[in-house]
Design a protein that fits this description.
Oligomer: single chain
Largest sheet: 2 strands, antiparallel
Order of helices and strands: EEHHHH
Number of domains: 1
Radius of gyration: 12 Å
Number of helices: 4
Distance between the termini: 16 Å
Structural class: mainly alpha
Strand order of the largest sheet: 1-2
């Protein structure tokens, strides 16, 4: 299943289409500036979808999410790397 995001009370499913500007801009800005994106992730308890979200953000922004922020999401770098490999396939 694709990543599920939330912003201003509205849900977004991140499929192959580009996210709407209203969520894409603040989400990408937070990710690129090293801030937590935890508030944007609607499926935090689903480790696979959460890792896929972080991997896709990394791919789209060419940025790396900090280890401390991964810990806050209960993710490991290897989970994100595995999700990134699936994106590339």
């Amino acid at each position: 299943m694709p990543p599920q995001l939330i912003y201003n009370g509205k849900s977004y499913q991140w499929t192959s289409r580009i996210l709407p500007e209203e969520i894409r801009l603040p989400l990408f800005e937070a990710f690129k500036s090293g801030q937590s994106v935890k508030a944007f992730i609607a499926t935090r308890k689903d480790a696979a979808r959460c890792a896929l979200t972080i991997a896709r953000l990394g791919k789209e922004t060419a940025s790396l999410y900090a280890e401390a922020l991964l810990d806050d999401l209960s993710l490991t770098r290897s989970q994100v790397d595995e999700a990134f490999a699936k994106l590339a396939a």
